[in-house]
Fold this protein.
Amino acid sequence: MLRQRWPAALRSKDSELTRVLAFGLENDPDMTAIPPDALLAAALQANSDDADAVFISCTAIRAAEIAQRAEKLLGKPVITSNQALIWHALHLMNYQNPVTGFGSLFDQTPPTA
């Protein structure tokens, strides 16, 4: 199952996971039904003092809309799958206009290869 494999994949990329939290759902329709407030509560619960950031994985959930609120509450970056995908695509397009309301990731410039 994906929720069992992705933590190992992240660990193998020179990252240390301090906490992993899952909803235990098996399909996208169930994931899309998770309300944003439940995602925010889960992000706050998944945080640990020694974490540099909180990553919310899954493109089926509406986590990008809570990223900025979670960052304000946690005092650290919150990165979601969809947010990272859009951020990267905008940079590939050389999009220059500000993107606000979706977290501090959009204030960052990607590293050059």
